[in-house]
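Morning F.,

Quick status update on the modeling queue. The single chain you submitted on Monday has been processed. Sequence for confirmation:
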Amino acid sequence: MALFKRRTVGKPGEWFYCLSHQTVEEGPECRAADRFGPYATREEASHAMETARERNLEWDTDPKWHDKGEGQGKSGGAAG
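Structure tokens below.
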């Protein structure tokens, strides 16, 4: 048993998108690894997956992330 138990407590008006349940929740109900947020509004949280897809596309097409330096692979990142 843990000596100190952390409660998942959010501020009033914070919205999250739960990846496990694929739902919007007010205040963090699920663990941090399973959610996106906080968002200022329920509407923003409801579009969390769209926002993530758009950001991923931006990063995937950003030339700064694909500099193809000498001795590097296609993405220019560190070997994994």
